[in-house]
Amino acid sequence: MIANCYEYATGQHNRGVPIIGMMCEYTPRELILAAGAVPVCLCGGSEEKIAAAEQDLPAGLCPLIKSTYGYHRTQSNPFLAIA
User: Fold this and answer.
1) Average pLDDT over residues 5-32
2) C-beta separation of 83 from 23 below 8 A
3) Which of 1, 22, 34, 70 is most exposed, with minimal Cβ within 10 Å?
C-alpha cells in the first residue's frame, strides 16, 4: 500500500505519467496500470459539499455525485486538479 497516495500521484503527474480519475470501485485498476497511468479515486463523501453542488445540479441527483461535484466546485479535492 502506498503511504501517501496524493504525494505519489503528484510525483507521477510531475514526471508526465497520466493520472486517471475513477468514480467507481468497479473500475479495473489493472487496465489503467497496464496503460502506464496511475488510478486515483475521485469520489466525494462529505455532505458539506452537496450544497455547493446543488447550485448547479438538481437536488434529486445521487448524493455521491453531488458531493464529488461539490469538491470540484469548491476546489477542495487536489486529485481533481491532476486527473
Assistant:
1) 93
2) no
3) 1
Q: Are 43 and 64 in contact (CB under 8 A)?
A: yes
pLDDT at 63 over 70: yes
The three cell numbers locating residue 37: 497511468
Total-model pTM: 0.75
38-41 and 19-22 as β-strands: parallel, antiparallel, unpaired?
parallel
Q: Residue 42: name the closest of 60, 22, 71, 65 by CA.
A: 22
* CB contact at 8 A, 71 and 77: yes
Set of cell numbers at residue 9:
500521484
How many angstroms separate the CA atoms of 55 and 70, rounded? 9
Total number of residues shown for the chain:
83
Q: How is the chain split into domains, by residue range?
A: 5-82
